[in-house]
Known about the structure:
The complex is a heterotrimer.
Chain A: H1 8-12, H2 17-30, H3 32-50, H4 87-123, H5 125-140, H6 143-153, H7 158-169, H8 171-184, H9 188-195, H10 200-236, H11 248-257, H12 263-291
Helix pairs in contact in A: 2-12, 3-4, 3-12, 4-5, 4-7, 4-8, 4-10, 4-12, 7-10, 8-10, 9-10, 10-11, 10-12, 11-12
Chain B: H1 5-17, E1 25-27, E2 30-32, E3 43-47, H2 63-72, E4 77-79, E5 86-88, E6 91-96, E7 102-107, H3 121-132, H4 150-154, E8 165-169, E9 172-176, H5 184-187, H6 198-204, E10 220-226, E11 230-235, E12 249-253, H7 258-266, E13 272-273, H8 280-283, E14 292-305, H9 315-323, H10 327-334, E15 340-341, H11 363-372, E16 384-389, H12 392-409, E17 413-418, H13 420-428, E18 434-440, H14 447-450, H15 467-478, H16 482-499, E19 502-514, E20 518-519, E21 535-536, H17 540-546
Parallel strand pairs in B: 3-12, 16-17, 16-18
Antiparallel strand pairs in B: 1-2, 4-5, 6-7, 7-9, 8-9, 10-11, 11-12, 13-19, 14-18, 14-19, 15-19, 20-21
Chain C: H1 2-29, H2 43-52, H3 59-71, H4 86-121, H5 126-140, H6 143-157, H7 173-199, H8 202-209, H9 214-226, H10 228-242, H11 246-252, H12 258-266, H13 270-298
Helix pairs in contact in C: 1-13, 4-5, 4-7, 4-13, 5-7, 6-7, 6-11, 7-9, 7-10, 7-11, 10-13, 11-12, 12-13
Amino acid sequence: MSIGIAPPAVQAAPRPGRSLWSDAWRRLRRNRMAVGSAVFLLVLGAVAALAPWLPGLADPAAQDLALGATPPSPAHWFGTDELGRDLFSRVLHGGRISLLVGLVGTFVSLVVGVTWGAIAGYVGGRVDDVMMRVVDVLYALPYIFLVILLLVFFSKSLVMLFVALGLVQWLTMARIVRGQVLSLKQQTFVEAARGLGASGAAIVFRHLVPNTLGPVIVYTTLTVPAVILQEAFLSFLGLGVQPPDASWGTLVSDGARALALFPWLVTFPGLAMSLTLLAFNFLGDGLRDALDPKGRRDSS
Amino acid sequence: MRALLPWLLICATLSSCAPAGDGGVVSEGRRWFGSLTPPVGQVFRFNLGTEPELRDPGVMGGQPDGRFARMVFEGLTVNDARTLEPLPGQARAWTISPDGLVYTFHMRPGLVWSDGTPLTAHDFVWSWRRVLAPETAARNASLLYPIRGAEAFNKGESDGSDLGLAAPDDSTFVVTLGHPTAYFLFLTTYYVFMPVPRHVIERHGVRWTLPANLVGNGAFRWTFWRQNDRYEFVPSPTYWDRAHVRLERVIAYTVDDLNTSSNLYKSGATDWNPSGYIPSPWLAYMKPYADYRTDRYQGTYFYSFNTTRAPFDDVRVRRALMLAVDRETIARDLLKGSREPWGRITPAGYPGYEGPPQVGYDPERARALLAQAGYPEGRGFPRVSLLFNTSEDHRRIAEAIQAMWKRDLGITVELSNQEWGSYLQATQALRYDIARRSWIGDYLDPNTFLQMLMGGDGNNRTGWSDPRYDALLREAARTLEPAQRLRMLAEAEALALDAAVFLPIYHYSTTELVKPWVRGLHPTVLDVHPLRHVWIDHDWRRNLEARP
Amino acid sequence: MIAFILRRVLLMVPTLLVIATLTFVMMRLAPGGPFMSDKEMPARAKQELMQRYGLDRPLHEQYLAFLGNAVRLEFGPSYKYPDREVRDIIVQGFVVSAELGGWAMLVALVFGVPFGVLAAVRQNRPEDFAIMTLALAGVSVPAFVLGPVLVLVFALTLTWFPAALWTGPESRVLPVLALSVAYIAYIARLTRAGMLEVLQQDYIRTARAKGLRERAVVLGHALQLGVLPVVSYLGPAAARILMGSIVIEQIFAVPGLGRYLVIGAINRDYTLVLGVVLFYATFLMVLNLLVDLAYQRLDPRVELA
Lengths: 300, 548, 305
């Protein structure tokens, strides 16, 4: 096989990255699903962030014990919980922490996981051994103690929540990227790039990583609900949101407890979570297509 | 959009299958919760609850552990199935000396362990002594403290040679108390007082409680075990009252999840869902079912203040917070009447005990007290937090009380939940402001609650102590006249309530589900259920009409 | 190859040592201890137990003793269940978890991979949309919601399967289903993504150009590399799924291993936690080694340095 058939990435390589990014941006803008999803996420994020100041929105902590749990009604669109609080307002407010957590988890998974995995896979040998053993160790450590200790040594805060999530969210991603890179690095276009004198870093980040984007983006979008639910587990341990505040994760897991009695309590936060996943998914697919070095895929 | 479908489907499915929505099974003019297919033969299936930790009756401490012990072992006395009053067990009779100090138990003739080894009064001497021996590390050894010399021996202060336990012959067991104890006979029904097989323990050590090794003397013999799955039993052929045990097999599942436990009952896989295993949101909807039973349970749910920390070192602040809790509303609206609002430390139902009047809800006085303490309208009140171990039930109550304090006192209390280990450590080390607590009595006497607030008691966990309180309790322990003793205890409780160290919230209830064919199983105030007389009534439909 | 395996197995020793040490340190730093309870244990009894289990000795001595025990695979008795050896608890739980997890893994692969391949081949057609919709649904409904719903519908309403308990073969159906759904979804999506990458590679085009049938191209050539992301994912995923899930075990009353990591940690049952963690770590590393071997099998260009 000659260099001529190698993917366009190699030809693009010597050129500065700007046109790659502006190309990608142009392609992304043409993808209606992706743009729609991005707009949806932005609106949802804005509404959640501004929830405390939105006029007409009930106080998410205002109780009406005599009312208790009621199904959706014109007064309470999503119904009320067992303390008689308006679920619509709680879901909107809960989006603040959940969207934030989803973003941070995704970001860590993407940045740390991809970098770690790509380097381990590309360099190989001892470096790979050590880097992958670090991943194994973090996998195997009892997470519950990690979190308990974070709570013991640091005061509870948003930063600690992100640290707790960040510690583990990138591990599987690192393994997936490493696996892809192991296979890709022997391919002709990599050898070609190496032959053209590209540096290790350039090969990893300009040639290898873009070619792993498919699985990477799929795994990243799948991470979003996992992270949102993980926040609920952290709340269980005392990190995460504190009552009377709630997040989608805690709302779903509380709702699951009384699932047969008050199905709306699990359904609405669950829907919010699914919608977000869906949007992330379309956006992810769009991004992948836009950034695809081969650039000839349709959106899916 | 299609990804949303499952959630809508779930909502639709749930709405149609919800237990509150369905009418249950209607039979014999009553509504029943779930399946009405009885087991085949005399087989009794129930949920034992969380996996027992210890199966050695002398050492154990938990509810499921005790339930296991009461099947496989038997003490000198056994509980009446309804009143829990002590009845002859391994002892056929007993006498109590006029000064209330010497109990002489006469053993039944021909008692044997399940391996055929004879069981005598000496076994009791050995077993009780073992519970008290410090190296046994028995959790409930203090229940034996009324026995002469027991406390000193258990605390390692004596060698136990003066212990008030003796077996003049194989069939006579004499117990001498250090001071008269009104409830001592009742104590002997407790599992700590059950005999354990010396010959087996000396051979197998701590592993004597594995199924291959265990030897008991109770109505049932343990035949099968799988951790976190189930225990199986058959009637013990060597039991003295074998003729009256009608069950042929007992299957006790160890299911710790409340929803799962209730689902098993509903699906007909179990015949009895014991108290504490119905998820709390369901309780409000259980009343119409004929197989739902609820009654008072000897326990209270309360908050405790850390009196070593400002602002709770000020009794006015504590009182203000106590008076600003609307217990009625919590019990009625939030807990849907499944619990009784309660305004004192000791629960109801102690024979002869008249506790102090319960504290009520008085926001006016609460505000006044808080203002006196220097926080008018809650201004300047420091940041404090309310600690509870993670549980949805604790959280709901904490959220409700948090809102009440905010509304009535203008103070903001932060909620802080921790997992069990951290929570325990924080309460023991007094690293908290306000903490959720609860207490279940061990025996039918207010002392089982009031002991806790003695200065320096390991369960105090408030930093509060009052010499007058301690003196009253000590004096009561020495008092022979029952009415006078109980008056002293009531005085002590009034003192503690006035100091507002504990903030009582509700009284526990037993909440259980029993299939209509189960006979001989009755609700009791200690949630103790002798299973020896249980049987399956296959003619239950006809007999139901005869019953009230 | 043999050298590679040998080196990786040798590497497991220091890794396990690091894991054991960190776990030991973390547990001891965590507040509370194994003999704390709601009702305070008498001081003398507590002291007695601390002594019995050597918890009163200096921490470094305890650490060395623990390492010595771990090497001999003797973790000692659980603190919570003193008549049971940690080893027995692990074995008993693992047998159950591995059976449940094995079925779930099988179901996840049997459905996930073909669905993923089909979706990739039929990219942007109705089949693709249907499969990916299902997959997204599978990911977004957590097991603690799906489990109770399955019980409500199939056990309590339709009464096709038992509501819980680990008894006959029919008792496996609902927990396997509840456990595998999320994994089916992950595997299907990863397979599809991997296949889409591969289907555009030169050698696939070459194969097509040579006139091979599409079926042969997809199954004979592309699938091998297309499942690489799934294989990477399977290492940790299989470890997790076979070790059991506390959520599934509680909902269906399955006597598996999954609960001990969380419950043991909450009870500060030091021996039990250490035993389970080391068992899990070994298991995970063996699986990851198998994954690395599988890479080479699937893609002979991969060098196992």
